[in-house]
Amino acid sequence: MAETINKSEEQWKEILSRDQYIVLRQKGTEAPFTGKYYANKEKGIYRCAACGQELFSSDAKYDSGTGWPSFFEPLSEDKVTLKPDHSHFMERTEVVCSRCGSHLGHVFDDGPAPTGKRYCMNSISLDLKKEE
Ligand code: FE
After folding, report:
1. I need a surface site. Which of 8, 28, 64, 92 has the fewest CB within 10 A?
2. How many Å apart are CA 44 and CA 48, to the nearest integer?
3. Which of 90, 93, 85 is nearest to 110 (CA)?
4. Would you call 120 a catalytic residue per the annotation?
5. How far apart are CA 29 and CA 53, in angstroms?
6. Cα(67)–Cα(122) distance, integer angstroms
């Protein structure tokens, strides 16, 4: 297992913007069709906006029509940690960054080939490092 980051919530508040904090640390969800990446088609690597860990390649990004950036797979399975989420009267699977534990979004089983997965992410949880 790679090195993990453990910061106090006070430390996260100093690093993150208020809106980032609400999603990344309090499991908020940005409104659909409002984030900066849902329609983005630029090539590069999407990193965790909290700790910088590389999470998703633009090669795995597709237009899910949901208004959130969606990917059919992470860069590798060890980049994300999946957790059962029973909140809001739903049974979902939460996706968090494996390095810093920050909330990224949820994963669903209605994605495209080859994986059939839809990693439904919040734009604000991501930071695209564009391909040179
Ligand atoms: Fe992270």
Report:
1. 8
2. 13
3. 93
4. yes
5. 20
6. 9
Report how far residue 71's alpha carbon sits from residue 69's, in angstroms, rounded to the nearest whole number. Answer: 7
Tens-digit pLDDT profile for residues 78-97: 999 999 999 999 999 999 99
Based on its alpha-carbon atoms, the radius of gyration of the chain, rounded to whole angstroms, reads 14
The catalytic residue among 48, 51, 100, 120 is 120
Q: How far apart are the first and last CA of the chain?
A: 30
Q: What is the pLDDT of residue 79?
A: 98
Chain segment 66-75, per-residue pLDDT in tens? 999 999 999 9
Q: Please tell me the distance between residue 69's alpha carbon and the centre of ligand 1 in angstroms.
A: 17
Cα separation, 98 vs 47, whole angstroms: 12
What topology does CATH give the domain 9-130? 2.170.150
Q: Please say whether the beta carbons of 21 and 12 come within 8 A.
A: yes
Near ion ligand 1, which residues have CB within 5 Å? 48, 50-51, 53, 97, 99-100, 102
pLDDT at residue 132 in the model: 84
For residue 120, the model assigns a pLDDT of 98
Separation CA 60–CA 5 (nearest Å): 26
